[in-house]
Amino acid sequence: MDRRQLKTRQAVFEAFTALLETKSYGSISVQEIIDRANIGRSTFYAHFETKDDLLRALCGEIFDHVFSPELGREPTHDFSGRRDLKGEITHILYHLGESRSYIRGILRRESGELFMRYFRERLEGVFGGALGEDRPDLPREYLLRHLTWDLAETVRWWMDHERYTPEEVSRFFFAAAPLEPEA
Amino acid sequence: MDRRQLKTRQAVFEAFTALLETKSYGSISVQEIIDRANIGRSTFYAHFETKDDLLRALCGEIFDHVFSPELGREPTHDFSGRRDLKGEITHILYHLGESRSYIRGILRRESGELFMRYFRERLEGVFGGALGEDRPDLPREYLLRHLTWDLAETVRWWMDHERYTPEEVSRFFFAAAPLEPEA
DNA sequence: CTGATACCGAACAAAGTGTTCTATATCGAA
DNA sequence: TTCGATATAGAACACTTTGTTCGGTATCAG
């Protein structure tokens, strides 16, 4: 990719996230973004179709990082042959913690809606494969959706409660999630 | 309240919900709303400050209905003196089911964000009082927030799965919610 | 009946959107 | 280093949307 494009793209992302820290997504105009990013109007539209497109691209950037597999690390399995869900989740939480400064602003208000949707799409891949038949009393589609929004909202909560570590948050999530069979 | 105001207000709500069935909140203009409601521009702004204000008012209208106490029905308590949470929730779900046609459109996309926020604010009142010390292993603020988003998202899911009854949905919720002590 | 008030509809300034154009600067590859 | 390709700046453009104002008309409540 051309260095010029990369520089522009970064400048836009920087300006956008900075603005999201101070005001809501809907009230941010393209004008403000390009002023802050110090680029021309036509340049912006050469990169992104609309403001929504920009948000989508930014989320994609973040998730590509968050869901990147550890270098040289295969999905692990425990002794019973099931995937190590806890390990995967903690791994994701670590990366999210690193990106906190980018994410916190997005999660406020309307833009959070879009972020959460993309986030949960990715999470379906994680949970979909790992889901056994632990809870035959619940419709599978309800259970899957439940787990993804549980984790997504847990993350959203965590972003405003800096004092907890990824491990603690992971423990909270698994303690509250409906993964074990009902007593 | 003046009949004229009431008529206008109703016409706007009707037009707004109808538009939300077909297109996203952000892409609806005030112009479309007043055209469909067949009212003058200045009239709209005499009633609502902005589009967000309209959405807020509509949500308020809906929740006033949904959370209205049954006529002459006191909050019941079971034999141990705790509030009948299951009964209250099922009651709320019934009203939500009745308002499905108004709600479904709102819940799509960005407007859902606002709806869910107001919804959860109300739910905090319901859960806050009924919460015991069942889960000392979780921070109380996390638990409270967890319960409200659980129910709110359960409702959102339900609105697109018409085949379930309020009783069934209530059962799903309580089966998945972290209310019982961990085994 | 009558005073109050809600409505209509047109006009308005202001701001934002997305496109198009030309000139300029920067890039990557030979 | 050179050179063709391409990204950018910046201005101009038509267009939509927003929120306000105002004088005239219709409808309300008492």
Question: What are the defining features of this structure?
Answer:
DNA-binding; 183 residues; Tetracycline Repressor, domain 2; mainly alpha; homodimer; 69% helix; Arc Repressor Mutant, subunit A; 9 helices
Question: What is the secondary structure topology, with strand pairs?
Answer:
Two copies of one chain form a homodimer.
Chain A lengths: L2 H20 L7 H8 L3 H7 L3 H16 L18 H14 L1 H8 L1 H22 L9 H20 L6 H11 L7
Chain A binds a DNA duplex (30 and 30 nucleotides) through helix 1 and helix 3.
- Average pLDDT of chain A: 92
The most extensive interface, with participating residues per chain, is: A-B, 27 and 27 residues
Cα-to-Cα separation, first versus last residue of chain A: 55 Å
Helix content of chain A: 55-70%
- How would you classify the quaternary structure? homodimer
> How much of the sequence of chain A is in beta strands?
under 5%
Examine the coordinates and then state which fold CATH places here, giving the name of the CATH topology of the largest domain in chain A: Tetracycline Repressor, domain 2
Q: How can the largest sheet of chain A be summarized?
A: none
Rg of chain A, Å, rounded: 19 Å
Tally the helices of chain A.
9
Q: Which secondary-structure class do the elements of chain A indicate?
A: mainly alpha
For the secondary structure, the number of strands of chain A is 0
Indicate the low-confidence ranges of chain A by residue numbers: none
CATH structural architecture of the largest domain in chain A:
Orthogonal Bundle
CATH top level assignment of the largest domain in chain A: Mainly Alpha
**Quick one: CATH superfamily of the largest domain in chain A?**
Tetracycline Repressor, domain 2
